[in-house]
Design brief:
alpha+beta; binds (2R,3S,4R,5S)-2-(hydroxymethyl)piperidine-3,4,5-triol
């Protein structure tokens, strides 16, 4: 379809709300969607439409015939409504009254286009600019607001949403993601009812353990995976956020998204501009999976560090040895992952600390020098071992943190976040403190942690960047008294600046965002990070649920998913290796286990799985997702698949979730295939004595999508290996 972007269409008279004016319709179209706005000079910017692509010729007529909403409601002159922005002017006036004063659009080097509508206050020297960014190849619109103080005195910002979207009431359902440590990204689906629904974060550092800053709105009743008009919204911000849906006495739901203003009132100085983080919006008529595919593609193409590159298969040392790092065991783990076909070894926490060796989790953060007691030949010794094993080497750091037992804290107690006149509240180990990233000296320090490692050891291929504490007490030793309320925001500005510097100097290193597990699954961090750790919980059954939720907004290339030990260290559940592998293989496959404790049979299964994963990796990590049957539907099984962009290959996953005799599990119809193409089916990770009845046979995409394959509920194995668990991975070519 023809691409249109940001056309200004002169529309004829529109009449609404008791007055008549000439409209300037702004058409923000992506290949398959359109957003229409009206930017008539002298009027507030108005929202008209968001949904399926509208031919340009119709835009004016739609603008004429439909009602409109203020596209960015502000506080004061219609004070009874929820608003996106409220300010206090220097004279104490608490109102804004905005009118459009200009619209401009420009094309950036990468082909993306940004349209900016400027609204100015009718009396005060204060502007609000609303921006819309699109890409030629993508159905995502990024939108954000900017507040500009053109006056001579400071203006107090009390509310500063990134964006507002009105959604017509009807039978609208909200899909959101809640959870906590070890149970991240748990999906909640609910009808939107009158009242206010708030999804928020106040951790200060990590922002996706307890709630995610992404939601979907299903406009046609109960959310469905592959049908129904659906809007997706992802706030791209690493800090505290708030998503709010107000269902008031009108015909509309009012959706607001932005930085969480609680504890963050912001003083905008003379001549300053406050830029809010972007909200990524997408629309799909193809249900939630349709929204996921749009967002994943946008993420891989434009938001995720190296989003279109394949990730290495790794072994991480954490659940294998925890803090008990020893050189000989690192050597053994490297040899083992290499012999299984792995490509990278990551040494986790526990390798550092000279004066205070990191033997417990209560010391040494900040002292990023190698503990030569544990590693007599240092990092270079480990790098040599990696070279000898033909694999790459990665390392764990937690650079935003320190412990009160550390040389860093002894030298720079002024670097930590703590309120004046009070003892700091401390976290993990009773000693962990958060460094004040608003302080440029701390930013330099954090940069130098990475810089020193990567200049001293240029062979380091991967960094696991952890963050294991919230901002527990409010108080910056760096910010002035009148800017203390900026801490939560300045922390993330400092974080962003530091990561920008790191990426400018080290564009190629792979960096994982970890934050006590899944605390940093967010598009606010992914421009600098290649992937994130989904959860500290590696239990395969619980991972089916967590990865299901996570997959709504994040592609498999970002979802670190590791095979771990049985009994599982978090749940104590004993799950056979085959099932653990089949779940881990639906994300970015890795291992987190002491391989020497595995049986020969388990080792052989893993070796085979790694080899199979190399074949399917491009489809998993770069393909289109089709979720088929949700684990949340209580049908005893969950299933999903990835399809290559050309639809010539697909990987199908089937995980049985519970076991009852004569339970009638549904047959799963596939999706996303080319109906007219023939696909040959091959089972991966097979443990059955006999191949499945459809092994090696070819079926049309049409048959697979209308009928599906009959998956046996159990595995046909010898007596010793029988278990209640059952799972299948099928490769379709
Ligand atoms: C929390 C992370 O989520 C774990 O994977 C591990 O790296 C530990 N921190 C190390 O302290």
């Amino acid at each position: 379809m023809k691409l249109k972007h940001f056309c200004l269409i002169a529309a004829p008279m529109i009449a609404y709300g008791g007055f008549t004016c000439y409209g300037e319709t702004i058409d923000i179209s992506t290949p398959n969607t359109t957003m229409l706005l009206d930017a008539t000079l002298g009027q507030p910017l108005r929202f008209i439409y968001y949904g399926d692509l509208i031919p340009q010729a119709q835009a004016g007529q739609i603008a004429e015939s439909t009602g409109w909403h203020t596209a960015y409601p502000v506080y004061g002159m219609s004070a009874s409504r929820e608003t996106a922005m409220s300010v206090t002017h220097p004279d104490g006036n608490m109102t804004l009254d905005l009118a459009v004063t200009g619209t401009e659009s420009s094309v950036r080097k990468d082909g993306s286009k940004v349209t900016t509508v400027t609204m100015s206050d009718k009396v005060y020297p204060f502007d609000v600019r609303i921006n819309y960014l699109t890409y030629p190849d993508n159905d995502v619109i990024e939108t954000w607001a900017e507040a500009v103080n053109r006056g001579k005195k400071p203006v107090e910002l009390r509310e500063f949403s990134s964006a507002y979207l009105p959604v017509r009431r009807g039978d609208v359902y909200l899909t959101s993601f809640t959870g906590s440590w070890g149970n991240e990204a748990i999906m909640v689906e609910e009808p939107l009812k009158p009242g206010v629904k708030i999804i928020k974060n106040k951790d200060g550092v990590r922002n996706s353990h307890t709630a995610h800053s992404e939601v979907m709105l299903s406009l046609d009743g109960m959310p469905r995976e592959n049908e129904g008009r659906t809007i997706g919204a992802a706030l791209c911000y690493s800090g505290n956020y708030e998503l709010k849906i107000d269902t008031d006495d009108s015909d509309w739901h009012h959706f607001f998204a932005g930085i969480n203003e609680d504890n963050s009132a912001y003083t905008l100085g003379k001549g300053e501009t406050f830029v809010t983080p972007a909200l990524a919006l997408t629309y799909s008529p193809d249900g939630k999976s349709g929204v996921s595919r749009n967002i994943h593609r946008w993420g891989r193409d434009h938001k995720i560090a190296h989003g279109n590159d394949l990730r290495k298969i790794l072994l991480n040392s954490w659940e294998g040895v925890y803090l008990d790092i020893k050189e000989d065991e690192m050597a053994q783990m490297m040899a083992d992952i290499s012999s299984m076909g792995g490509e990278l070894f990551v040494m986790d926490d526990g390798w550092f600390g000279a004066k205070y060796p990191r033997t417990r989790d209560n010391s040494s953060l900040g002292d990023w020098t190698v503990d030569t007691g544990k590693l007599p030949n240092g990092i270079n010794g480990l790098l040599d071992m990696a070279d000898r094993n033909g694999i790459r080497f990665g390392i764990w750091i937690e650079p935003e943190m320190t412990n009160t037992i550390s040389e860093l804290y002894e030298q720079h107690p002024e670097y930590i976040i703590r309120p004046t006149n009070r003892e700091p509240v401390l976290g993990r180990g009773g000693t962990q403190a958060v460094l004040d990233m608003s302080n440029p000296k701390v930013q330099d320090l954090v940069f130098s942690v990475v810089d020193t490692l990567l200049t001293r050891y240029p062979r380091i291929d991967y960094i696991k960047w952890d963050a294991n504490a919230p901002i527990m007490n409010h108080g910056s030793q760096y910010l002035t008294a009148d800017r203390q309320s900026h801490l939560m925001i300045e922390y993330h500005r400092g974080f962003a600046k530091t990561l920008e510097r790191i990426r400018a100097k080290y564009p190629d290193v792979t960096i994982q965002a970890c934050a006590s597990g899944g605390g940093r699954a967010n598009y606010g961090v992914l421009p600098w990070f290649d992937e994130f750790w989904v959860s500290d919980n590696t239990d395969a059954l619980q991972r089916v649920y967590m990865q299901w939720g996570t997959s709504h907004f994040f592609p498999a290339v970002t979802m670190a998913s590791h095979i771990s030990a049985a009994p599982n260290h978090q749940t104590n559940r004993v799950i056979p290796m085959k099932y653990r592998i089949d779940v881990a293989m639906s994300g970015r496959l890795g291992m987190e286990i002491q391989p020497k404790n595995m049986t020969q049979e388990e080792t052989d299964l893993c070796r085979n799985a790694i080899s199979e994963y190399k074949t399917i990796r491009p489809v998993v990590q770069q393909g289109d997702i089709y979720r088929l049957l949700s684990p949340y539907d209580g049908k005893g099984v969950a299933s999903m698949m990835y399809v290559s962009p050309d639809k010539d290959k697909a990987v199908f996953y089937w995980w049985k979730l519970e076991t009852f005799v004569n339970q009638h599990l549904p047959r799963i119809r596939m999706a996303g295939l080319d109906p007219d193409r023939m696909y040959t089916v091959r089972e991966l990770n097979r443990i059955d004595r006999k191949p499945l009845s459809f092994e090696g046979k070819s079926f049309s995409g049409r048959y697979l999508m209308s009928n599906g394959l009959e998956i046996p509920y159990t595995h046909n194995t010898d007596h010793r290996n029988r278990s209640a668990w059952s799972s299948r991975v099928l490769y379709l070519e």
